Fold:
Amino acid sequence: EQQKIYLGKYTFGGGEDEYFEVKLNMRKILSMARGDYFGRALLKVDEHTFAPGGAPSVRIKFEIKDGLAQSVTVHDPMPIVKAVRG
Structure:
C-alpha cells in the first residue's frame, strides 16, 4: 500500500527521455527506470530512501508532501539529479 505514494513520472529536463518512471515490476516490487530503459528494483534502506538493485552505494530519495512523493533525487553519494513529479 505504501508503494503507491511513489508511483508516477518524474521529469528532470525537456528531452524525450529526461524522466524517471516509478512503477511496480512483474513481481510487484517498486522499480525505477529512466525513459523507456529497463528499470531497476528499489530496495528500501531508510524512510523514503532506496538503493537500486546492483548499485548499493547509490541512494534514491523521495520528498513526500501530503502523503505523496513530489520529487525524487538520485545521490552517488552527492546529489546528481532531482526530478519533479509531472
Remarks:
- Residues 47 and 55 are 18 Å apart (CA to CA).
- The two ends are 21 Å apart (CA to CA).
